[in-house]
Amino acid sequence: MTEAAGDDLTRVAADILGVEVGPARAVDLARAAGAARAAGGPADGPLDDRALAARLRAARPDDPRRQAFVEALTICETHLFRIGGQFDALAERVLPGLLAARRRTRRLRLWSAGCSTGEEAWTLAILLERLVPSGWDVTVLATDVDERALAHARRGVYGARSFRQTPGWVRARWFTPAGDGWEVDPALRRRVRFATLNLATDDYPSPDDGPAGFDVILCRHVLVYFTAAARARTAARLARSLAPGGWLAVAPAELSVEFPGLEVRPFPSAILHQRPDRSEETEPASRRAAAPHRPAPPRPRRTAPAAVARLADARAAADGGDRATARRLVDAALETDPLLVPARELRAQLLVEDGDDETAEGELRAALFLDPARALSQAMLGALLARRGERTRAAAAAGEVRRLLAGRAPADPVPGAADLTVGRLLADVDAWARPTGRSEP
Question: Is the CATH code 1.25.40.10 the one for domain 299-371?
């Protein structure tokens, strides 16, 4: 693949999928080009890279070459109850609040946007089956651009990998053995409708969804792969797709994306976005939804003393090796004050010790969203990425730590971490940021 032809295919990927294919994904791009050529058949004859780019740009969405190209560039990595803290917030706060707010219509619409192989959509259906009273009209729309992933989602049969970090009761109650895997319960199937949708290029929200829009949208691990332009367009469309009072959940790495008209809502286990419902402002307080409607307060702010005390006790328990008590206390601290960044750092540390790197990364990205100048959170995130072999992202985190601490003496305490000096933290950063020769996965 020549550099000029590769640039053509990179632009095609951006135009038809919205994805940014940089040097780190050169292998993916070459594989996608090979898959597209193989899908054409002998009658079409061979295509060089530039001719293939032109063919893909002009092709219909159902063209075999284009479908093969799309499938090869789509990342299908998910599992049930992925980013569990968001589902905790949905189950404990958001859905109960929506049930109260929508009691007149008895109707809820949820959307899993970029559903991949369907585990996210089935997770939403499980929450609905457990929480929604009988007689309500409640459904999940699940969409993706990858037809192969959608076929998997519609089958609803999953192997053990889809149940990792999933509570044991989920598979026991909502799935039945089917060959080498487990199949979703019929009660869940009636909740979910799968459809093809390209978030980067298709028109939405659709009139079929009704004028009220969606009450909950999950669009996670999608925008992070988009170009800046595609990300901004899609974020605006997602925001417009929400009903007043509706909620949006994105991956922690996507929290910095701007969603026009939405407000940030911090929870103990997640940070979500919400479209304000201005009509509620004139209703009596007793008739408003139970979900929290508290915007993040401006900095500087006063931290709740009870949360600080619980965090101190959690640290003492963690230092003493009692991780169960530490987890309980740090959860209590964040329940009192969801904006307490040091508590999210401690929770991330405990999650790493438990082997849950993905959720730990989410906590650290939430901490950095709340306090972008937090050098300790940035260093913890970089160390986690380096340990996973993600050298490019780890190097970016290391550079940010050095920038944040520039001009401080080695003996100075790290802001927000009085027991840690700048010199010690920078030495740790130098250790994990040092090139090892390992390649980026």
Answer: yes
